[in-house]
Amino acid sequence: MEIIEKIKTNKSTDNLTEIQKICLHKLQSSPLPNPKSELWRLSNKSKFSNFLDYSFNEIDSKFDIPYPKNSQSTIRLIIGENCLIKLIEKNYSIRQLSEDELHKYIKEQISGFNQNENWCDLLNLSLSSKNNILGLKINGSKIPPIEIFSHSSSDSLNAKTLVIFLEKNCDIELLQVNLGRENSSLSQSTFFCLKENSSVNHGVVSFGENRSNLLNSLNVIQQKNSVYNLGSLHFKFNYARFEISIKQSAGNAKTNIKGMQITKKDEQISTYTKIEFNGPNGFLDQINKSLADDKSHAIFEGSIIVPKIAQRTDASQLSRNLLLSNFAQIDTKPQLEIIADDVKCKHGATISQLNEDELFYMRTRGITLTEANKLQLSSYFQEIISFIPVSKDRWDLLDKLLNEN
Amino acid sequence: MGNENLVKDVVKEPYKYGFVTDIETEKIEKGLNEDIIKLISQKKEEPKFLLDFRLKAFKKWQKMKEPDWAALGYKKIDYQDISYYSAPKQKEKISSLDEVDPKLLETFDKLGIPLTEQKKLTNVAVDAVFDSVSIATTFRKELAEHGVIFCSISEAVKNHGDLIEKYLGTVVPASDNYFAALNSAVFSDGSFVYIPKGVTCPMDLSSYFRINSGDSGQFERTLIIAEESSSVSYLEGCTAPMFDTNTLHAAVVELIALDDASIKYSTVQNWYAGDEEGIGGIFNFVTKRGKCLGKRSKISWSQVETGSAITWKYPSCLLLGEESVGEFYSVALTNNLQQADTGTKMIHIGPKTKSTIVSKGISAGKSKNSYRGLVKMGTKATGSRNYSQCDSMLIGDQASANTFPYIKSQQPNSEIEHEASTCRISEDQLFYLQSRGIEFEEAVSMMVSGFCRDVFNQLPMEFAAEADKLLALKLEGSVG
User: Phi then psi for A23, rounded to 5 degrees?
Assistant: First the structure.
């Protein structure tokens, strides 16, 4: 808990940015989230404190991207690597946000932050220094796919922040990769602002090595007629927490989310989503899949909030879970909070194991038990993986997952 | 068409149970402390074990905090401003119904609860509870012939102390929650049912709870024990007069089903809900739980919740016995400023246990209606199944409908399915019905009644008709 001690006693505020100061101030009175609150009560205490045990590291070790770039046209960025980004082409432009723009936007966001709900963001912003914040403003069309990497260094805690403004009528494919190194913690916060008529295919792939931890938070604001598609995958973390908050600020927007978390050994991975409709005609289609094996614990909590103004909202949320071992645990809690009357909202949840009839059928056709299991799992995974942009063909995520299992 | 006519009849009726019976009552002073508990116990001539049980519960309650997780907005309850015992003054002991104060009998007649046996045609035995005490229990002789014990809990304490000592607090321990602890400390009366081995109860049993006094809370306790291979159907109804103040109702219901036994517990709750401005009404904080102890035992809860300013109620099943079954069928309707936070807990402990949850919530006016439920599969619940369905219907754009299902599984060889949906009164269906000459309000009633059909089908006959009437009545003026 070295970090928390530091937050509590931090007096040398000279080198800190204004944002860091505000966030530190918010955290100082009660530096840890309330473990009894609904959002934190299932969080494994010792694992969570393990996240905070590593000493904070502002400077990264040398980082080699583990995957080759398949085409020259892909834009590849690493948060923390000091470089100026200014790409102005015929059809599009990508430029770094100025410090002022960044400060203004983040300040606006944190004004509404709450200790328990946004604890991950507050911690991230109080730690991440100028070098570790990447802000981009993207404009235009026919933009090549973008890959953005965040990583932690061994035996340390790293904090990375990404802010993206997507201008009107712009559409992009963006893959965000969070890599956890051995014995390390990574705090990643992403802020996405989608202007009118823009659209994003956003992929988030997070995986760790031995005993790595992750706090991953994603805040999205969607303006009118924007489309936000998210495909996410989290696996191989000692402790990982993925918080998604999406606000359709004036309704009339579309959100599609397909997420998956895979836990093994004694891992704990949780996903918390909060989708707010602040205007009419909003649309949401969400599916979250979990797979828990060995002694692991997978958690999903999703809330959909439809206030009076959000008439004609159409939202659906599905939580599908596979429990593969006698010692594993799954908790799921999809929730609806509705005040508007002219809406179509539904949710569903299932917890089961691999279908025995299917297994039996395949075995009668001469397929071995291991192969049959793999086939079943691949069909379970495929729905999510095929939704993750940029990576899907050459990263062989499916093979990676199946071999892990 | 029969039901629809009934609906039509009552659409214009106000809360008809809102009258107060002017009867001399014996009330103890307001406040809660050990002396008051000792006084209640003394008045009821209770054995020592029960007084100890009460005092222990009171100590626990003092250390507990009132729960706030349900996010129900109500003004703080002053527990020292409530009278914990109120009873109609009676001459000595009553040996037959003829000795009951005619005013009381009249009250129950007005409520449609026939207590005088000669008048009774329906085959239902009734235990009527007025404020803190049980007034009368009917059909005792007939029940006794079958070995069935159906009496007030105070009587049971005197005559069947061994059973009470053995089972009281085993399903809902005093330390279970704030309101259960309060009830354990001050409970005044309630019903006791014991069905011996192999007996199918020859008639439906029914309890009728009536709050008459404005400043005394009602804290009843019900205990039902179904021995091996027995079965019983139990009905519960509740009403209260209209007061501008809020009255507290904190009940505890415990059910125990042994091997192959089955208990069906139905409730139509129609406490006074307060007026359109939200003034007055009952605060209904109830803990209901059944334990399926035996193999192949079954507990089925069905409830129609239409009254109370605030409802906080989660009838639950602990499924311990192999192949035991838990069921929960609920209709909760809120109107005006009512708030209902209701649902169930199905805790699967034994192997091959099954549970079904069907919950229908209707919110109208500015009310708040939440379903909150827990389904848990323990490590030993192999081959267990759960199916849950929660549907909400919103009427008007100021009511809110929330769904909070908690699902937890630690057993891979079990299956849990949950689905929830929200809808409104379909305009197409309304248009169709109106084009066939059916009036607007009647059309709405028909649609609401259709929405709740799955649950009404599970209610005993006379309750189903009453439930239909109630819903139509409660919705009056909330549409259009």
Answer: -65, -40
Banded model confidence at residue B11, pLDDT cuts 50, 70, 90: very low
Q: What would the mean pLDDT of B435-447 be, rounded to a whole number?
A: 87
Q: How far apart are CA B350 and CA A242, in angstroms?
A: 34
Q: Please, what sign has the CA dihedral across residues A274, A278, A280, A281?
A: negative
| Burial zone of B377 (CB within 10 Å; 0-12 exposed, 13-18 middle, 19+ buried) | buried
B408 touching chain A per CB within 8 A: yes
B412–A347: do the CB atoms touch at under 8 Å? no
Instruction: Report the alpha-carbon distance of residue A174 to residue A148 in Å, rounded.
Output: 8
Give the residue on B whose Cα is nearest the Cα of A347: B420
CB atoms within 10 A of CB B80: 10
How are the residues of chain A apportioned to helix, strand and coil, as percentages rounded to the nearest 5? 20, 40, 35
Asked if residue A139 has pLDDT above 70, the reply is: yes
% chain B with pLDDT above 90? 43
Going by the DSSP 8-state scheme, the letter that residue B431 receives in this structure is H
pLDDT for the residue numbered B142:
82
Report CA torsion sign: A77, A79, A80, A85: positive
Identify the residue with better confidence: A136 or B110. Answer: A136
Tell me, yes or no, if B423 comes closer than 8 A to chain A by beta carbon.
yes
Q: Residue B171 and residue B176: Cα distance in Å, rounded?
A: 9
The rounded distance, in Å, linking the Cα atoms of A307 and B232 is 44
Of A63-67, B114-118, B182-186, B362-366, which has the strongest mean pLDDT?
B182-186
**B346-392, pLDDT tens digit by residue?**
999 999 999 999 999 999 888 999 999 999 999 999 999 999 999 99
Give the length of chain B. 480
Does the CB of B394 have a partner CB in chain A at under 8 Å? Answer: yes
* Residue contact B419–A353, C-beta within 8 A: no
- Note whether B397 contacts A340, CB cutoff 8 Å: yes
Q: For chain B, which residues make up each domain, given as ranges?
A: 2-474
* pLDDT score recorded for residue B6: 36
- What is the distance in angstroms between the Cα of B356 and the nearest Cα belonging to chain A? 14
pTM exceeds 0.90 for this model: no
| Range in B73-77, B93-97, B135-139 the model is least confident about | B93-97
Higher model confidence: residue B158 or residue A69?
B158
Burial class (CB in 10 A: 0-12, 13-18, 19+), B309: buried
Q: Which chain B residue shows the shortest CA-CA distance from A38?
A: B69
Burial grade of B5 (CB within 10 A; 0-12, 13-18, 19 or more): exposed
Q: What are the residue ranges spanned by the domains of chain A? A: 2-249, 356-405
Mean pLDDT computed over A313-333: 94
Q: Which residues in chain B have Cβ-Cβ distances shorter than 8 Å to A308? A: 397-398
* CA gyration radius, chain A: 21
Residue B8 binned pLDDT confidence (cut-offs 50, 70, 90)? very low
Contact A336 B401 (CB under 8 A): yes
Tell me if B377 and A351 make a contact (CB, 8 A cut-off): yes
Q: Tokens for A292, please give them.
A: 């828990």
What are the DSSP E strand ranges found in A181-238?
Answer: 184-194, 199-208, 212-222, 227-235
Burial class (CB in 10 A: 0-12, 13-18, 19+), B71: exposed
CB contact under 8 A, B377 and A332: no
pLDDT tens digits for range B97-152: 566 666 666 766 666 666 655 445 455 667 777 666 666 677 777 888 899 998 88
**Contacts of residue B344, Cβ cutoff 8 Å, sequence gap at least 6:** B301, B314, B315, B316, B317, B328, B330, B357, B359, B373, B374
Classify burial at B78, counting beta carbons within 10 Å of its beta carbon; exposed 0-12, middle 13-18, buried 19 or more: exposed
User: Angle at CA B351, nearest 5°, toward B349 and B355?
Assistant: 70
